[in-house]
Amino acid sequence: EPPEPPGLAQLSPGSPPQAPDLLYADGLRAYSAGAWAPAVALLREALRSRAALGRARQECGASCAAEPGAALPSQLLGAPHPVSGPGVWEPLLLRATLRRAECLTQCAVRRLGPGGAARLRVGSALRDAFRRREPYNYLQRAYYQLKKLDLAASAAHTFFVANPTHLQMREDMAKYRRMSAIRPQSFRDLVTPLYWAAYDTGLELLEQREAALALPQLEEALQGSLAHMESCRAACEGPEEHQGAEEEGEGSQGGLYEAIAGHWIRVLQCRQHCVADTATRPGRSFPVQDFLLSQLRRLHEAYAQVGNMSQAMENVLSVLLFYPEDEAAKKALNQYQTQLGEPRPDLGPREDIQRFILRSLGEKRQLYYAMEHLGTSFKDPDSWTPEALIPKALRERLREDQEKKPWDHQPPQQKPLAHWKDALLMEGVTLTQDAQQLNGSERAVLDGLLTSAECGVLLQLAKDAAQAGARSGYRGRRSPHSPHERFEGLTVLKAAQLARAGTVGRPGAKLLLEVSERVRTLTQAYFSPERPLHLSFTHLVCRSAIEGEQEQRMDLSHPVHADNCVLDPDTGECWREPPAYTYRDYSGLLYLNDDFKGGDLFFTQPNALTVTAQVRPRCGRLVAFSSGGENPHGVWAVTRGRRCALALWHTWAPEHSEQEWTEAKELLQEEEEEEEEEDILSRDPSPEPPSHKLQRVQEKAGKPRRVRVREEL
Amino acid sequence: ESEPGWDVAAPDLLYAEGTAAYSRGDWPGVVLNMERALRSRAALRALRLRCRTRCATELPWAPDLDLGPDPSLSQDPGAAALHDLRFFGAVLRRAACLRRCLGPPSAHLLSEELDLEFNKRSPYNYLQVAYFKINKLEKAVAAAHTFFVGNPEHMEMRQNLDYYQTMSGVKEADFRDLEAKPHMHEFRLGVRLYSEEKPQEAVPHLEAALQEYFVADEECRALCEGPYDYDGYNYLDYSADLFQAITDHYVQVLNCKQNCVTELASHPSREKPFEDFLPSHYNYLQFAYYNIGNYTQAIECAKTYLLFFPNDEVMHQNLAYYTAMLGEEEASSISPRENAEEYRRRSLLEKELLFFAYDIFGIPFVDPDSWTPEEVIPKRLQEKQKSERETAVRISQEIGNLMKEIETLVEEKTKESLDVSRLTREGGPLLYEGISLTMNSKVLNGSQRVVMDGVISDDECQELQRLTNAAATSGDGYRGQTSPHTPNEKFYGVTVLKALKLGQEGKVPLQSARMYYNVTEKVRRVMESYFRLDTPLYFSYSHLVCRTAIEESQAERKDSSHPVHVDNCILNAEALMCIKEPPAYTFRDYSAILYLNGDFDGGNFYFTELDAKTVTAEVQPQCGRAVGFSSGTENPHGVKAVTRGQRCAIALWFTLDPRHSERDRVQADDLVKMLFSPEEVDLPQEQPLPDQQGSPEPGEESLSDRGSLHKDEL
Question: Which residues contact A583 (CB under 8 A, 6 or more apart)?
C-alpha cells in the first residue's frame, strides 16, 4: 500500500469505525476549505468505514446462520408431519427469529462498536455517491494538490473506471498519462474486485497459448467471483435493498405472514440478482453472459491442455450441471474419460459449484412459488434454469413476455476481450490528441491501430483492386469532389468478391474486415461505452494527385461538411434531415500512409471557414469524431503522391448497420469451407473433373451485386 | 378461489354513503347504508378470522417447496442457507394460503380512521336519528343505547335516552346493546345472579360466559395478525435488517395477543378492566357449585383456579373441604379443565418470548396478568419486578409503576440521544496542522464552546501585535484613548479593511495586513468545521484589539475589562432572561477570540450562568489560543480587568445570514484580490463541488468604523 499521506489520523487497531456519512461530510468540508491533507484522511476513513460495514454484515450473517442456537428450527425439519399438531411451529418461528436477531445484533456491536450496523448505515443519496465512487473524484484532486501524483493517478483511474463517460476525468486521465513523473503501475483500480484482473490476465495468457500460466489466474478469478457473490448476498438482508420496494406500499398492508413472506422474497430477489452484479464490470450496465460458465469452460479446456485430466473432468462436469445437454461439454467429457482410461467414480463436479446450484435452485423454486401464489415478480437472471422448475401456469406467461421484448432492449452480447484493457485503449494504442487539444468536443486522435506490415497489406489490397479495375477496362475516375485528383474506392464486399475471384489476396480482404471491427470497438469504447455502435459504411479510399494539374489549384480534396446533417455556413446551423445521412452517429478515418503532400484533415467552426484543428495522416492513425454539427470537417488538397485511408461511419440504429459487411464475412468464410472440402476431395481416389469446380465459380459470378458508392473522404 | 360470496361492498364506501345521506336528510338512505356498512365490516372481520384460523391448521411443509433429500446438518454455511430456505418455505406457504382465502389485499382494506369510527360505534349515532325520523322507535332506542354504552360521556345522547324513556310505547327491553359481547353479557348476568344468592340460576350463565370467552379470545388473537404498525416511524425511515424486521413485527403481534386479556375484560361502563377476569370465572363457579351441592364441579373449578394462583390459601382450604365432602379417592381423579390448561401454557410461552425480546432488544412488554410465575421473567427483569410487586399489590398499581418506568426509560433515551446528537454535532475536525483541542463544551461546563491552541505561531503573534501598535500610531487623528468600557484601560483597535488600506499606503507592512486577513479566514473555517455547520459562516465583524492597563489606575479598581453580556441578545441577569431583539446584534450566530499574547495580568475570559455572576468556566489567554462559542443565550461571557501590561486579541463575530455579512469584509476581499493575484492553477478542471453562492449582498445594517468602536469590544 502506498505510504499514508500526512494528516491521516492513526487509529488504534481495535477502535470501532466512525460513521461514514459524518466522515464524508467532514471530508467535503475540508476539501472545500482547501485543507487537502485532512480531506484525504477523512475521505479515506469514510471509505474504510463503509467497507467495514459490508464486511461485518457478511461475517456476522455467516457465523449466526451456522450457530446452533441461532439456527432456524431443525428439530422439525425431519418430521414432515409434526406430532403436536397445528399451531406448534409459530412460537418456534419467533423463538428462532429472536435468537438470530440477537446473534446478529451482538455480533455487529462487537465488530462495529456501540450502535452496531445501525450507526454506520447511510441514506440512499450517499449510498449512490459511494457506488459511483465520488470520494475518488475528490481524492484525486486533493492528492494532486499535495503533489502525490501517483496516488492522484490511482484515484483518478479508480473513478474513471466506474464513470467512463465522465468527460472531465477522461481529460485528466490523458494528462496524468503524459506526466513522466507518474509510474505506469499507478494507473490501477483500487476498488474493482481482484477477480476481474485475474480473469483478464487468464484470458490473455490463454490467447498466448500459455495454459499452465493461465490456470492459477482462472482459478483465482472463479474463487473471487464466488466470494464476491457471497458478499453481495450478505448485504441483501440489510434495509437498504428494500427501500425502493417498500415505497410501493403494498407490502406494508399485508398481515403478519404476508409481511414476513414479503421480506423474505425481497431478500431472495436481491440474492438472485447477485449473479448479475458479480458479472457486471465497473462502469458497465450489463453483465457478462454466463460468467461462471465461461470461466468453467476455459478451466476445463486449460486443464486438458496441460494434461491434468482429473481437474478437466471436474470442471467439465461442473459445466454439465448448468447445461446437461451441452454438446461441446459432453464431447469433451468423453474425450477426457477416454484419456483417463479407467473409470473414476470419485470424480464429480466442483463442490463449490454444486453448492451454488443447489442453493440457487432452491431460491428460484420459492421465487416462482411466490410469483404464482403471492403475486410477486421475478425475472430470472440465469439462462441455465431448467424449464421444469418453472410452474406450468407461469411458463406460458413468461414465454409471452419474452416474445414481446424488442431487440434493442436486450443487453448486447459483449465480447470480454474487447473490454479487458482498462475499458479504454487496446494494447499498443495511444491517445494522441483529445477533444480539448483539438479545440472541440467528441474528437480524438489515436495512434498505433495498425502496424507497418498491416498498412502494407491494406495498401497492396487497394493497389491490386485498382489494377483489377484497369485490367477490366476501368480507369480511376476523377474525384467527384475535385477535378485535380484521381479517386479509387473499395468496399468490404467488393474486396471479398475480388479475393474470391483471386484478383486480390485473401489476407488483405480479411484484414480489411478485421480492422474495421477494430475501429468500431475502439470508437464505441471511447465515445459510447453504454450503447453499442454498428458499422454503417466502410470504405477503403485512395486519392492521387494528377500531375501537372496542381499549380494554381484553389479547391479542397473534400469540402467542409458534417456527416449526419446539412451544414449551413451562413447561419451556422446543421439540418439533420435527408438527404443527409441522419442515422450516422460517429465517424472515423484510419490512415494507411503519409508519403504524400497535403491531404490533412481539418476541423472548422460552423461557419466552415475558421479552422480549429488539423490532423496529419500517418500509418495506423485514427481520427474519430461524432458525426453531428459540432464537428464540421474537410480535407486539404492532395498535391503530390497518393493518400490512402479507411473511412468508416458508425450508427446506434441497428437497422442501419452495414449488411455488406456481414455478406463479405460470410463470403470469405464460405471460401474457407470450400477449401476444406477441396482438401477432402483431394484425398479421394477418384477426384471429380475440374469442370465441376469451374461451374460452381460461374454460378457465384452469375449473381453479381451492384456496389453503391455513397460517399468518400 | 376466494371465499364464496365475498363480493360485499367495502365498508368505507357504505359509511361514506351513509354520512352523505344524513347530510341531505335522506333518512331511509342513512338506515340502508349504515346498516349495510356495519354488516359489511362484520363480514370482513369474520372473513379474516375464518381465513387465519383455517390457515393456522394447515401443515407448514409441502413437497413442492422441499429441496429433495435432506442435507446433513453440518456446520457448512451452505447447509445453513438451505435451512433458511426450508424454514421460510413454510412462511411462504402460510402467506399463499391467506392470500388465496382473502383475495387480493386491496379487496379488504379498511382505513385506520374508519376502523376507529366503527370502534367508537359512530354508525349508531346516525342510525338513532334516522330511525327516529322514520318513526321506528324500537330501533331508535336500541341504536341510541348502543352508542351510549360505548360513549358514556356523550351528554346529548344521555338526554336523548332520558327523552326516549318518557315516551309511551317504549319498553325497558328496547334498551339493548346491539354490540354487547356475549361473554361479557353472560358474565355480568351470572355475577348478578350470584350476588343475589341464586346459584342455581347463576351457574348456566357463568358456564356460558366461559365458552363465549374462549371464542372471543380466539377471534381477538386472530385479528392481531395484521400489518406492522410503524408507530413513531414513517415506514420510509424504518430501517432494520431482515431478522430484526421480522422480530419487530412478530413481537408486536404477540403483544397484541397478550393484550386480548385486557380487551376482553373491558366493558364500556367500567373505567378499568375486570381484574383476573378469566380466573375469576372459576372462582365464582367453584363457590356456586358448592352452594348447589355439586362437589365434583366445585373441585374441578377450584383446581382450575389454582392453575393460575397455586398459592391461594383460601382456595386451598376450599379444595380441602370439598375433597373431604366428596371423598379423597374420588376427588384425586378430578383434573383442572383442559381448555384452561392449554390457554395458560400458550400464554406462558408467549410471555417468555416477549420478556426475552424486552431483555435483548428493549421492546417493552407490560404483562397484563398478575398470575404469571416469576421464573418466566428473565432474572434481570425479575429483580426489577419483585421490588415493584412488593410495593404495589394491585395490578393497576403495578401497571402504573411499569408505565412510569417506561417513561423514565424514554426520557433517559431521549436525553442520551440529545446528548449524542449534540456531541456528534460538535467535535468536527480542526483542519490545520498544529491546532489542538484544549477544552470542549463539557470541560467548559456548557454547550457550543471550544478552546483551541496553536491556531497561529509565536512569530505571527508578534507580527500582529506590531501591526496593532503601528496602526494605532498611524491612525487618522485617533490616538490611544481610554477604553470606552473602563477609564482604567487604554484601547487600540484596527479592522481588517483599515489594516489593508494602511498597508496599501505603506504605513504598515503589507504582508502583516495580509496575514491578519488570512488568520481571520482561518478561524472562520475552523469554526465551521468544528461545529459541523451545514451552511457557511459569514463575517459579521472583525477587530484586532489591544487593551493596556493604565498604571496609576489599577489600585482599588473593581470593574471588569468587559462586563458580562451575550452577543446576540440583551441579558437581563435579574430575570435570568436574554431578550433577542434590537438594539442587540440579533443576527450574530457564532463568536471567536484569538489571543496574541499572554504576558499581562488579569484579562481572563470567563463564561457565566444567566445570572451573570455564577462563573462556569474561565480561559487564560496565550498566544495562538482561540475561544469559540455560539453567540446565544447559552453563552454569557465577560472579560476580567487587565491590571498590568497589554492584552491583544482578534475578536470575530459570524453570522449564518449572508444578508448580514460585513460590508468591510467584502471590500477587504476585493482589495486582497487586487493586491495579491492568485497564481494560475496547474490542472484546471471543473470543481467537484457545486459553486459556492455568489457574493453576498451588502448588509443592510452596515456598521461604521467609528460607531462600532463604542458598541461592543472584547
Answer: A536, A564, A651, A653, A656
Q: Which residue, among A128, A104, A129, has the nearest Cα to A43 in the 3D structure?
A: A129
CA A166 to chain centre: 17
Give phi and psi for B413, each to the nearest 5.
-65, -40
Residue of A nearest to B357 (CA): A98
CA distance A294 to A322: 11
User: Active-site residue A643, yes or no?
Assistant: yes
pLDDT confidence of B58, banded at 50, 70, 90? low
**B361 Cβ under 8 Å from any chain A Cβ:** yes
Give me the half-sphere count of Cα atoms (radius 13 Å) on the Cβ side of residue A239: 21
The whole-angstrom separation of Cα B346 and Cα B285 is 23
Q: What is the mean pLDDT of residues B203-221?
A: 88
Residue A711 in this model has a pLDDT that exceeds 60: no
Q: How far is A519 from chain B (nearest CA, A)?
A: 30
Q: Give pLDDT tens digits for A270-288.
A: 888 888 888 887 776 778 8
**Residue corresponding to grid cell 430484526:** B244
Q: Which residue of B has its CA nearest to A79?
A: B61
C-alpha cell at B487: 477609564
With a CB-CB cutoff of 8 Å, which residues 50-89 of chain B face chain A?
A: 52, 55-61, 64-65, 67, 70, 73, 75-78, 80-89
Residues A617 and A632: their CA atoms lie apart, in Å, by 18
Contact between residue B126 and residue B143 where contact means Cβ atoms under 8 Å apart: no
**Which grid coordinates are listed for A28?**
467535503
Cell match 490476465: residue? A201
Contact A105 B349 (CB under 8 A): no
Q: Measured between alpha carbons, how far is A255 from A377 in angstroms, rounded to an integer?
A: 19
- Amino acid letter for position A357: I
User: Do residue B431 and residue A171 have CB atoms under 8 angstroms apart?
Assistant: no
Q: Looking at chain B, which residue has its C-alpha nearest residue A257?
A: B95
Q: Which residues of B belong to the active site?
A: 647
Distance CA A394, CA A402 (A): 12
Listed residue (A147, A684, A604, A189) closest to A424, CA to CA: A189
A465 vs B684: which has the higher pLDDT = A465
Note whether B1 contacts A: Cβ–Cβ < 8 A.
Answer: no
Nearest to B249 among A86, A256, A365 (CB): A256
Beta bridge partners of B653: B541, B591
A45-70 b/e (C-beta count within 10 Å ≥ 16 → b):
bbbebbebbbebbbebbbebbbeeeb
Cell numbers standing for residue B226: 395484521
CA distances from A127 to B74, B233, B558 (A): 37, 21, 60
Q: Extract the C-alpha cell encoding A559.
A: 469540402
pLDDT-wise least confident of A207-216, A380-389, A585-594, B687-696: B687-696
Measured between beta carbons, the chain B residues lying within 8 angstroms of A93 are 87, 90-91, 250
Q: What would the pLDDT profile of B268-294 be if each residue is shown by its tens digit?
A: 766 678 878 899 999 899 989 988 898
pLDDT at B594: 92
Note whether B99 contacts A: Cβ–Cβ < 8 A: yes
CB atoms within 10 A of CB B514: 18
Cβ count within 10 A of residue A482: 22
- Sign of the Cα pseudo-torsion (B529, B530, B532, B535, in order): negative
Cβ atoms of A649 and A536 within 8 Å: the answer is: yes
Query: H or E segment at B341?
Result: helix B338-361
3-state SS track over A95-125: HHHHHHHHHHHHHHHHHHCCCHHHHHCCCHH
Cβ atoms A620, A589 nearer than 8 A:
no
Decide: helix, strand or coil at residue B543.
strand
Minimum Cα–Cα distance from A42: chain B residue? B429
CB A162 within 8 A of CB A282: yes
